[in-house]
Amino acid sequence: MNFHVMTLFPDMIMDGMNTSIIGRAVKNGHLTLEALNIRDYSKSKHNQVDDYPYGGGAGMVMQPEPIYDCYEALCERIGKRPRVIYLTPQGSVFHQGMAEDFAKEEDLVFLCGHYEGIDERVLEEIVTDYVSIGDYVLTGGELPAMVMIDAISRLVPGVLNNEVSAEFESFHDNLLEYPQYTRPVVYHEKRVPDVLLSGHHAKIEEWRREQSLKRTLERRPDLLENANLTKKDQKILAILKEK
Ligand code: 9WO
Questions:
Q1: If you average pLDDT over every residue of the chain, what do you get?
Q2: Using CA atoms, how far apart are residues 122 and 16, in angstroms rounded to an integer?
Q3: Is the dihedral of CA 118, 124, 128, 129 positive or negative?
Q4: For position 171, what pLDDT does the model report?
Q5: Pocket lining: 133 vs ligand 1, CB cutoff 6 Å
Q6: How many angstroms is it from 112 CA to the middle of ligand 1?
């Protein structure tokens, strides 16, 4: 997977990702990550990339030409026209299924806006996917781009050292993860559940599944609508709902 981030703050992307497991995956060669400085594509005297909004109003709007030229230069260099994701509160809300879909691509471009946004005309020309990471307003698209890169990267084969872990974590079957415990057996008078010390693997799996169902029912009942439930799961859920 090759990530290309178009931004006015390339250091924010490179510093943020170098200090994580994603940084290790880049060094291993499982991923590439580059930040493209939109300012490098300004043709104005003072490398200007924004201007006042037509119609008036507060703040500044990013101009279309540097962003278009940045994308076209990338396309010429790599010989393809990858999907362009614009991070905006006006996009579809990001979820695990979208991460799985994006992980199938060989190249992905993230467009990070700033100020009061980007001139609509260049968005119409190059953006293929409008994505939000949640209903809140930030100062720019860089943090959402990093969130998406993290979620997508861990689905790329070889990025996580544990081959099976990616599919076995939260959202497997659309359920929340069961609780985890490690040493010591007793901490602040609380014991680790006995079943986990029993060595009885079938019983442990059964307990963990029940915990996942219980937790999802309590914390995220909305997820159950699209959950992958066996007949046995449904019976356990019915009992949990009675309690
Ligand atoms: C600010 C503004 C002020 C007056 C009139 C219109 C306005 N629009 C905006 C605006 O949308 N600013 C955005 C700031 C422009 C794109 C980058 N910014 C951003 C991205 N804030 N929050 C996000 C974001 C992206 C993905 N998921 C959650 C939040």
A1: 95
A2: 27
A3: positive
A4: 80
A5: yes
A6: 10
